[in-house]
Write a structure and sequence with these properties.
Layout: H1 2-19, E1 36-41, E2 44-48, E3 54-57, E4 64-66, H2 74-83, E5 91-93, H3 99-102, H4 105-108, E6 113-117, H5 118-124, E7 128-130, E8 133-135, E9 146-148, E10 151-156, E11 159-166, E12 174-179, E13 184-186, H6 207-220, E14 226-228, H7 237-259, H8 264-270, H9 286-298
Parallel strand pairs: 4-5, 5-6, 6-9, 13-14
Antiparallel strand pairs: 1-2, 2-3, 3-4, 7-8, 10-11, 11-12, 12-13
Bound molecules: zinc ion.
Residues 21, 96, 98, 101, 170, 189 line the site of zinc ion.
Amino acid sequence: MRIIFSLISLLSFCITTALAHGDNRHFANKQDVQVKTTKVNGNVYMLQGRGGNVGALVGMEGILIVDDDYKAVGEKLAAALKELGSATPRYIFNTHWHADHAEGNEFFGGSSTIVAHTNVRKRISQVNTLFGNQIPPAPVVAWPVVTYTESMSIYINGEEVRAVHYPKGHTDGDTVVFFVKSNVVHLGDHFFAGRFPFVDLDNGGSVQGLINNISALMKQIPADAKLIPGHGPVSTIDDLRKYHQTLSETARIVQDAMKKRKSLEDIKKTGFPEKYKEWGTGFIKPDAWIETIYKSYSIK
Ligand SMILES: [Zn+2]
């Protein structure tokens, strides 16, 4: 019985990790994944493997990274970091608990100091539900060892790396990381560049919360900063503004239909105006975005 239970949880874990808004085409041949390194600004780089974007601050005092992709990408990510100075980051910030951003903790956790919001440690160390599947706790080595509830800074390589929590957005434990001197901001999954976002309603996320947080961020981020989104290419504040506008407008469309007592099925059938077509070509298709908005604004 226990074996069957373990097999079921392993299977659902695999399926879920594959689906966790990463690219599941690579799941069968994950060994083929390549990590691409892009210089962003100052001493900050972006590394792209199979999951969410990884930010890296490099210098004489060591490497600090923001997010660490899937565990399976660990060796490739370490090799790409070695090219930048060291295969072993001194510090790792997790923007949130999803496997495509934090499962690499299992690879790096023994040698790097993992820092995250208290809710990230909580979720990584407990059973969670995602896409209707039960996700078992990660091994202890993967748990963040330094936590905060609002914000914290790490001073390294002549840079202030400031981590700020934004409540109830993509999840209940999201952090945005500001590389103050290099003028780069890593937004985690608060920002899906040019695409409808995944909002994890089962784990404290909220569409209105996400929109409010992006509003606040647009005021806090310098106009000439370079932005690392959770998914997609390096972006600008203008890209973030367009994203915010799209989220607000599409949420409004669904809310208006809800006020007219339209059913979820009818709203999906009507869909969004043509101008939002490109936004629905990523991981979250228009129907999924409509359903997320509908459910989020139905939560009392
Ligand atoms: Zn995520």
